[in-house]
Amino acid sequence: MKPSKEIRILLADDEPHILQFLEMGLVNEGYTVQTAPDGMSAYSLALDFRPHVAVLDVMMPGMDGFHVCRMLKEAGNAIAVIMLTAKDEIDDRIKGLTLGADDYMVKPFSFDELLARIGARLRNQFPDLLGEVALGPFKVDDRRGEIRYEDRLLELSPTEYELLKYLVLHHGMVQSKAVILDKVWGYDFGGEENIVEVYIRSLRDKLGDKEHQLIRTLRGAGYRVDLP
């Protein structure tokens, strides 16, 4: 999927080889990219560059990613922030999200996963930039709140739409029930995890996925959408 309009992405990391690798990959995908080696230059650059998405490393000299995230959000500009960290610590994740971060990734990560997360943030916060997204047999139109499968409009409830959209946009990646509940129902959802099974069953019925080849169940891990 290539951006339909200019989409600006800011990358901030103090490891030059990571910056170069990510910049080359994102430019190849059609994004306009600028990079910064530390937090202060990242914030200064963002004021003029006005990125749609900022990918910030947590541990940077001078001003860390948490500080940059807070300042960018307080500046009032519409921006999606993805935090990068080398530590899989829940305290870091909570701190980042509390300061306004929109997503969180733990190093090392795959470039495809970063692409998927950037795409998800753009669809959620800047849907007019992308329009309709075609992925395999699916077409997701977030402006209309519609999903087509093999050119057939699916009759979906709002929750079914959000669940299927999330699984399709993150195709190829296993999604646990806990993650699905957090992303689709919200972190403050107080119900049971089994609600996910109920909605997955309904989606399979509407997709005609009797053999579970489209929405796969990975026992003990979660669900994954596989596209041709």
Automatic annotation (TrEMBL):
GO cellular component: a single term: cytosol
Occurrences of domain OmpR/PhoB-type (ranges): 130-227
GO biological process: regulation of DNA-templated transcription
The organism's place on the tree of life at top rank: Bacteria
Keywords: DNA-binding, Phosphoprotein, Transcription, Transcription regulation, Two-component regulatory system
DNA-binding region: 130-227
GO molecular function annotations of the record: phosphorelay response regulator activity; transcription cis-regulatory region binding
CDD domains associated with the record: REC_OmpR (cd17574), trans_reg_C (cd00383)
Response regulatory domain location: 8-122
4-aspartylphosphate modifications at: 57
PROSITE patterns, A to Z: OMPR_PHOB, RESPONSE_REGULATORY
Alphabetized Pfam families for the sequence: Response_reg, Trans_reg_C
Matching PANTHER family: REGULATOR OF RPOS (PTHR48111), TWO-COMPONENT RESPONSE REGULATOR ORR33 (PTHR48111:SF1)
This protein's name: Response regulator transcription factor
Organism: Paenibacillus rhizovicinus
